[in-house]
Here is the input.
Amino acid sequence: MTEVILRDVAKKYGQLSVVHGVSLTIPDGEFVVLVGPSGCGKSTTLRMIAGLESISSGTISIGGKIVNDLPPKDRDIAMVFQNYALYQQMTVYDNLAFGLRNRKVPEDEIRKEVARATQMLGLEPLLTRKPFQLSGGQQQRVAFGRCIVRHPQVFLFDEPLSNLDAKLRAQMRLEIKSLRERVPTTSVYVTHDQVEAMTLGDRVVVMKDGWIQQVGTPLEIYNQPANRFVASFIGSPAMNFIDVDLVEEQGRLRAKARDFSIRISDQTAALLRNCKATSVTLGVRPESIHLGSPPADIDTAFTGDVAVTEQLGAELVVGVNAAGATIMASRIAPDTPIAVHENVSMWMNPKSLHFFDAKTEAALR
Here is the structure.
C-alpha cells in the first residue's frame, strides 16, 4: 500500500511564503491532479513530495514512511517533467535502461522491463533512435516508459503535456488514461489546464496563492464549487457572475440587478434566508442559460443585447449584455441566426444557480 500523506506542509523562501500548510491524503492507487493558475504553489508542492525542494514545515510520508529528510533517489518515486529530461546522446533503449543500470539491475532483467514498457507504449520501432529524432509525443512516451520500468511507489507528473500542440495533448490524455488502467500506481499530476484536471483525475485539488481551495471528484468540483474562484476556474466557458440583491416580493425571493429580475426556487430561497444575506453574487454556467422563453412554470427570463458570438462548429456561444455584465450562453444550435447588437430573450435553469457571499466569496449552501 503506497499512501501519500501531506500534513501542514509549507514552503518559504526567506520571508516569502509560497505554500501555506497544505494537508492532503492520497490513497493507494489514486490519481490526484493539482490544478491552478501559475504561481499557485502546485509545482512547488509536487517538488516537495519528490524531494527536489526542502519543506519549511510539516511532514510528508510515502508508504507510511516520513520522507522529509530523504533525498529524491531514496523516496522510490518516478517523475515526468515538462521538458521530458531525456539524454540526447543515448538511444531510446538506453534512456529506458539508464535508471535500472544505475541500480545495478542485471541486464537480462533490464531487457524484460524495457520490453514490457515499450510494448505498453508502442515504442518498439523507436528503440534505436535518439530523442532528437522523435516527435514531441514520442519523446513524452519515452519519458513515461523510463518511469514504468522502475516500478516506483509513486508517479509524479509536472505539466507533462504543456509543450504539445492541442491535438497531441488530447491524444496523450487518452494514452495516460489507458496507461493508468495497466499501471495502477499512486500518482500526483500537476497542470494549469482544467480540461486535463477534469478528464484525468480521480480527485482534483484546486489551488490558489499557495492555499488549497477545494478537494473533490471532478463532478463535485464542477457542480459544488466551494467558492467563486473554484467556480470561475473550472468550466469552459467560465461561469457567469452577477452581483444581485435579494428581494422579497409577494412571498417569493427574487434576485435583482439592473434591468434583471429572476425568481429563486423555494429550496434555494430557504437556504439564502437562513444565511441572512441581502447582497450576493449569482453564478450560472453558460450551459445553463437557454435562448428564448422559459417554460410556463419558470420565472428566470431576461433580455439583453448580443455583444459577441463565437462559432465553435458543434455549438454557438453568445455573449449578452445584461444585468451590468456580459452573460455568456453556450450549447446554442450552431445554425441559430443571431446578430451582434440584436436584442434577445434568454432564461436560466433555476436548478443550476449558484450563490456566493459578496465579501468572502464562499459558496452559500
About this structure: Residues 166-182 form the longest helix (17 residues). The chain has two domains: 4-225, 240-357.
